[in-house]
Known about the structure:
The protein is of the alpha/beta class. It is 41% helix and 17% strand. The chain is built from eleven helices and 16 strands. It has a seven-stranded mixed β-sheet with strand order 6-5-4-7-10-15-16. Strands 11-8-9-14 form a four-stranded mixed β-sheet, covered by helices on one side. A three-stranded antiparallel β-sheet has the order 1-2-3, covered by helices on one side. A hairpin with a 2-residue loop joins strand 12 (292-293) and strand 13 (296-297). Helix 2 packs parallel to helix 4. The longest helix has 31 residues, at 111-141. It is globular.
Amino acid sequence: LPKTIEWVNGRVRMINQLLLPYKLEYIETDDPFRVAEAIKRMEIRGAPAIGVAAAFGMALAALKVQERSLKETLNVLERTAEMFKETRPTAVNLFWAVNRMMAVARSATSLEELVKSMISEAEKIALEDEKANRRIGELGSRLLSDGDTVVTICNAGSLATTYYGTATAPIYVAKEKRINVRVIAMETRPYLQGSRLTAFELKLAGIPVSVITDNQIGVIMEKEKVDIVFVGADRVVGDGHVINKIGTYPLALVAKEHGVPFYVAAPTSTIDLEHDIEQIVIERRPSSEAAELFGRRLCPEGVDYIYYAFDITPPRLVTGIITERGIAYPPYPKSLKELV
Ligand code: MRU
């Protein structure tokens, strides 16, 4: 699989995900504003990937302002950090990564040290993400048996992270162990991360994948053999509520009704022990993104098209949460706290 995002000689290189699956093209830039723009436009998306993008963006900002004094540089970086935090509200990895970058910046004693340590911290965040996903893959692959069918939603794949993905990692590791599974990817209206991105990367990796429109999930659970559900998360709060792509909650409900285990795969950087579920902002994107398809409006002018980009799955529907430090099972307030 191609790398989603990389630091290459003082520049950031990332796949432009809006062009997939038609074109595999990269955005390469040394401009932090361009990185913020890419997150906003969803040229890069997925909770861990936008965290890494923001970290690299902060490192680019440090490179740009290095002529000034340390204090002045820190002031500029504080503003850059705010800019990144305003790109998207729901995935906690973004805030976590930017805060980590600022902590490193604040502890530097010279400009030279600041630039060096911010670049190495950003590279560390990217590498840690890849390693965490590999570990999630190892733990999650133990839940799979040869011939299983896995349902997933959105893209919590390699493209949503530095590498391996979260929900896809167990599938990739299983393949290495010659445990062959088949994936049913939910299309994931309106951005089609399932059909455009998950199907793209699984096909590239040689994993059998079928796509369904989101509204087929009930009949699929009824008629097809579904063994397990793996989804990612944009944020998991301390009591086990899972915020993930719109459609995850109905998927969890149907899985529960059919006795199909529903697992969330997420690195500990996605777990937020500081906020309650009521405090989390569920992103609402412009309704035109949902109301238009191939440049045409899907409903009469003047009718509101509601578009929440994420939903909330309550802990009672979640079988387990696979992290790089182990699998958390209910009761989540206790198991998550122990892991984090
Ligand atoms: O709006 P997106 O495409 O950024 O949403 C992505 C998701 O909801 C993913 O499931 C989540 O970020 C986990 S990615 C490993």
